[in-house]
Amino acid sequence: MTLQTGGILPQREGRANFWRGVSTLCLALLLLFLAGCTESGVVDRSSGLAAPSTPAAPAASATPAEQIPARAVRFGYRVVREYPHDPAAFTQGLLYHDGFLYESTGLQGQSSLRKVELETGRVLQRFDVSGQYFAEGLALFGERLYQLTWQSRLGFVYDLRTFQVQRLFNYRGEGWGLTHNGTSLILSDGSNRLRYFHPETFDPQQEVEVFDGQRPLTLLNELEYIDGEVWANIWQSERVARINPTTGQVLGWIDLSGLLSAEDRRRPVDVLNGIAYDPQGKRLFVTGKLWPKLFEIELVQSRSGPTR
User: Fold this and answer.
1) Are 94 and 295 in contact, with CB atoms under 8 Å apart?
2) Cα–Cα distance between 232 and 127 in angstroms, integer?
3) What is the predicted pLDDT for the residue at 71?
4) Helices (runs of H) and strands (runs of E) counted in the chain
5) DSSP string, 88-123
6) Which of 22, 128, 276, 289 has the fewest CB atoms within 10 Å around its CB?
7) Rounded to an integer, what distance in angstroms lies between the CA atom of residue 186 and that of residue 199?
8) Are the C-beta atoms of 129 and 180 separated by less than 8 Å?
9) What are phi and psi of 101, to 5 degrees?
10) What is the DSSP letter of 307?
11) Structural domains in the chain, sorted by start
12) Residue 304: its pLDDT value, please?
């Protein structure tokens, strides 16, 4: 039989040409793919460096930078002036208004609301709270004074001028310190929470937990709202915390160690408690429970101790 090769060879050459074309096409696609990867920022293994690329969007952080607390600023103090203070006043709340101090004093059967002459410490006006109540924090909102009680869950609203009780209000838990930010009353209850209330309806609005870094800060006591911050006495300490009222983070610490002299401590005294601020004169006043003196002080940043 005669072998016919004229038709087979062209078929083989066609198949060879076909596979050569496929190989060329695959190689071209591979090169394009590698080029695309390099342009996308894939590491060039020959150099160990990433090829230039358009910066990618940053990955979301588990802890946003704005939530990482900065180190709280430390303050000492300088005594500007000393004033007499009733050593029988168990100071629970303190504020300054129109040249006078207003003070809430505690203890069962001894609680009171007072208007005090700054220069002399003389009590100009006084309302004695019923003996069944232990009075606590005090705030002035408009022309009304708001006074808390410790465990009775009851607050009093007084007329600023007459000290006449206008109404009562209730709240859950204990009452410790009280201030306001111009729109809401802010209450402390001994925990690490600041609780916000409507000043007319007394409806709860929000709660802000207070932290010193990552640590909950408890025993928040007497409060004062100063230049957009909540300042809080820490019960049984000689420190005042400056708190961001929105985030609850402690912004600064005021160390008032040594404020009351050893001579003044010869008679029975209790803990530091009482912050008042004169926004017009930019004056800061502090005192304590049963302290015989009230102090006007200036803050001194990053000092190791007090100066007089």
Assistant:
1) no
2) 25
3) 80
4) 1, 24
5) T--EEEEEEETTEEEEEE-STTT-EEEEEETTT--E
6) 22
7) 10
8) no
9) -95, 145
10) B
11) 84-301 (2.130.10.10)
12) 52
Phi, psi (rounded to 5 degrees) for 95: -155, 160
Q: By three-state DSSP, how is residue 184 classified?
A: coil
Secondary structure class of 128 (helix, strand, coil): strand
**Within 13 Å, how many C-alpha atoms sit on residue 114's CB side?**
26
| Residue the block writes with tokens 């007394």 | 202
Provide the 10 A C-beta neighbour count for residue 202. Answer: 17
Dihedral of CA 268/274/125/108: which sign?
negative
What averages of pLDDT result for each successive group of 10 residues across the chain (308 residues)?
Answer: 37 44 47 40 30 32 40 94 98 98 97 98 98 98 97 98 97 97 97 97 97 97 98 97 98 96 92 97 98 97 58
| Pairing outcome for strands 250-255 and 73-84 | parallel
Percent of the chain beyond pLDDT 70?
Answer: 75
Three-class secondary structure of residue 265 per DSSP = helix
Contact 32, 44 (CB under 8 A): no
Amino acid at 307: T
User: What is the distance of C-alpha 93 from the center of its chain?
Assistant: 20
**Cα distance between residue 100 and residue 140, in whole Å:** 12
245 closest CA partner among 177, 190, 199, 186: 186
The residues, ordered by sequence, that sit 6+ positions from 129 with a Cβ below 8 Å of its Cβ are 111, 112, 113, 135, 147, 149, 156
Count of positions (residues) in the chain: 308
pLDDT at 69: 52
- Concatenated DSSP letters for 47-99? TTEEPP-PPPPPPPPSS-GGGSPPPPEEEEEEEEEEEE--TT--EEEEEEETT
The whole-angstrom separation of Cα 105 and Cα 91 is 5
Contact present, 72 and 251 (Cβ < 8 Å) = yes
**If we measure between CA atoms, which residue out of 231, 236, 280 comes closest to residue 94?**
231
